[in-house]
Amino acid sequence: MNGVHDMGGMHGFGPVTPEANEPVFHAPWEGRVLALRRAAGAWRRWNIDAGRHTIETLPPAEYLRLSYYEKWFESTIKLVLGAGLVTQRELETGCRDPAVPVATPPLTADKVLPAIMAGGPTLREISATPRFAAGQAVRARDINPVGHTRLPRYVRGRRGTIECDHGAHVFPDSNAKFEGENPQYLYTVRFAARELWGEAANPADAVYLDLWEDYLDAV
Amino acid sequence: MNGVHDMGGMHGFGPVTPEANEPVFHAPWEGRVLALRRAAGAWRRWNIDAGRHTIETLPPAEYLRLSYYEKWFESTIKLVLGAGLVTQRELETGCRDPAVPVATPPLTADKVLPAIMAGGPTLREISATPRFAAGQAVRARDINPVGHTRLPRYVRGRRGTIECDHGAHVFPDSNAKFEGENPQYLYTVRFAARELWGEAANPADAVYLDLWEDYLDAV
Amino acid sequence: MAHDHAHEHDPHDHDHGQAMPETALRVKALESLLVEKGLVDPAALDAIVDAYENRIGPRNGARIVARAWTDPDYKARLMKDATAAIAEFGYSGAQGEHMVVVENTPAVHNLVVCTLCSCYPWPVLGLPPVWYKSSAYRSRAVIDPRGVLRDFGLSLPDDVAVRVWDSTAEIRYLVLPERPAGTEGLGTEALADLVTRDAMVGTAKVAGP
Amino acid sequence: MAHDHAHEHDPHDHDHGQAMPETALRVKALESLLVEKGLVDPAALDAIVDAYENRIGPRNGARIVARAWTDPDYKARLMKDATAAIAEFGYSGAQGEHMVVVENTPAVHNLVVCTLCSCYPWPVLGLPPVWYKSSAYRSRAVIDPRGVLRDFGLSLPDDVAVRVWDSTAEIRYLVLPERPAGTEGLGTEALADLVTRDAMVGTAKVAGP
Q1: Across the interface, do D7 and A17 touch by the CB < 8 Å criterion?
Q2: Residues of A whose CB is below 8 A from D149
């Protein structure tokens, strides 16, 4: 979706302001949000792409107003409701529905570090051969899906060059909709800054993005 | 500037929801904001382009959160402060600085309707001849000025066709910075919907924009 | 009809400007200060509000449309130089200094938007409605005009070309809607009664009597 | 130094998450509900927080960098297959499943961003700082990387090429900074002490001892 989250190239947000001696969390609830999301995610009722899409579909003014962990929290609520792990009534009352048996958490403390260390690799074996090769000229497609996509608006329609391929990876656009992993080759594509931003850009500069085959056409 | 105000082509704002029997103003203060802006504008300390830019430079989350007249009000405060018509101290205390003589308003009630009827035409006579002619293929330039511009992001780098020219008009990009009117030919340019949004668009559809000569290149 | 839509709003969408008392107080304070400093005349403020509440509104545009439907010579002048033809009615000025009229036909439907702010032809339509100024309309009208029209209850066949006019410069657009069937006997005032604001922006057609 | 910057924030920018008590209460309520329903184990929550507060942070990446500076064979492995070379240190997994290392040189400066959310190489750098997640960084890093670097106090000559890595897929990037002069005699732990998080994102250089 062409959401406000797709902010590459925007002006108006002011300078970047690093914080000295920044703590990992600025308040304990931030850490709990991170932990709740991971622990509830262990039920495998959604995937990382679907999770990202729930953040992108927050109302745009909210998206810009909320902090990172506030956005995670709001989207976690959407996810657990959408997955049926909790009901709206449970959320409103704060009390569990006694008709539903108490479950057993899939993620216990002893499994936390192994689960973090394993992560969720997205590399897949496929039989197809790559459509593009290093050095080849490509153009990012002009697509404007209303669902999740990882093709930022600022490269659409722009010419780039294939740097390398990373093998086949899960395709977010279909995975976010639970329509399958549809794994396909993922390429690093180099875009000259001038191709993206015009002649005012430094001719030496470039932006590199990892783009799936379905985002690219040969030119 | 590539601000959040430049929202053509975005998703995520939901359906358009017309209001039955909508009043001209939803509260008296809305009409007062419109009137204050026009009446203060009669001092001619800013122009329409500079006024628009003060709205665009509201913090993006505020821009999306505030209503139309709320944005006008916040920007009017910026304008009267920036023009020196009122001071920060006067604004905070609500009391005029007694050291400054009381002025005489340039816009009186009897002049209101004539001023509205006259408006502020932007057509200018220039000696140059138009660079483009109806039917000519053009491409919108890839420019990303941090100041005011009326070249929306969604047409930059895209090909269109000149429909007609409207004579020479004040150029907003320079006028907003009080760097002169720099009048130049203004053209209606037709962009096929497919050129802007890809093959999913209806082949019969098109978007028309009025673009100044400095926004266009021949192709 | 577009106006039968239920009025539902996102709680985060303040576009209706339900007066937060604080804003009303701040506006009042600024007005008092500007009046006290002699910068604005309160009678002029009243006159501006009165002009847009009572004098300048979509009835102006409706009269133009009705005349164009009934007077081929006028229509020819309107299509050739809209600013001058509209000025024949005494309508002119702020946010309508340079007018263009675009005509709907069975093959072409026109829709007007301003994606960068909310430019709108004030002399002929008055001040824009909240939906015209909304992020939803401004963002979608150029990328999904047919979806926007469906929000208004208007479904266009694929073979009708949709022309969107993104009026980001100082040219202002008025849509000349199609004259509905069954209106052959009506005079211009009766015809003007049928012409809605939405039809002149392009989000509706004109319904017959 | 980047971290000497004054900490000024727009009043509208809540990115630091100063706990509005309401949010803290709502998070607590959700946790209680999920625990009561047997959906999450509170000890697992503690373990996750502990992992990112105490075990996984930029010290990991600094060790990789120091090793690459001092061991040409390791550096060759790191540049060829970063995921495997990093796993030699026992760092792997969530948000670092597929790693790539990009090397700064006198002619090339690399900068990492994720414009679509805030993707970041957690196993080697820990959780991202607020500035990395801010709209200001995400929006400007791709269009004005040199301006962003100036916000961090780093002005690059025009003839140094800036490569921005917009890591919107599942490949995660770590910048291998230039080894500063005057560090010839230092061991890997002393070198790692010099390597800042910002240098491994590309918003700073590594200063000498």
Answers
A1: yes
A2: none
Low-confidence ranges of chain A (pLDDT < 50): none
In a domain, C114, yes or no: yes
Nearest CA in chain B to D140: B2
What is the tens place of the pLDDT at every residue in B7-39? Answer: 999 999 999 999 999 999 999 999 999 999 999
In a domain, D101, yes or no: yes
pTM of the predicted structure, to 2 decimals:
0.94
Distance from CA of C138 to the nearest CA of A (A): 14
Cα distance between the two ends of chain C: 13
Which residue in the block uniquely carries the two structure tokens 């018509």?
Answer: B85
D134 is catalytic: no
- Side chain identity at residue D59, one-letter code: R
In terms of phi and psi (left: phi > 0; alpha: psi -120 to 50; beta: otherwise), the region of A135 is left
Which tokens in the block code for residue D178? 């230039």
Q: Residue D181 domain-assigned?
A: yes
3-state secondary structure chain A: CCCCCCCCCCCCCCCCCCCCCCCCCCCHHHHHHHHHHHHHHCCCCCCHHHHHHHHHCCCHHHHHHCCHHHHHHHHHHHHHHHCCCCCHHHHHHCCCCCCCCCCCCCCCHHHHHHHHHHCCCCEECCCCCCCCCCCCEEEECCCCCCCCCCCCHHHCCCEEEEEEEEEEECCHHHHCCCCCCCCEEEEEEEEEHHHHHCCCCCCCCEEEEEEEHHHEEEC
**D4 within a domain of the structure (yes/no):** no
Count of the separate structural domains present in chain D: 1
* CATH number where C110 lies: 3.90.330.10
C136 Cα to chain A: minimum distance (Å): 11
Q: Does A202 touch chain B (CB under 8 A)?
A: no
Contacts of C18 (CB under 8 A, 6+ apart): B26, B27
Where are the extended beta strands (E) located within B16-119? none
| Structural domain span for residue C193 | 39-201
Contact (CB<8Å) C17/B68: yes
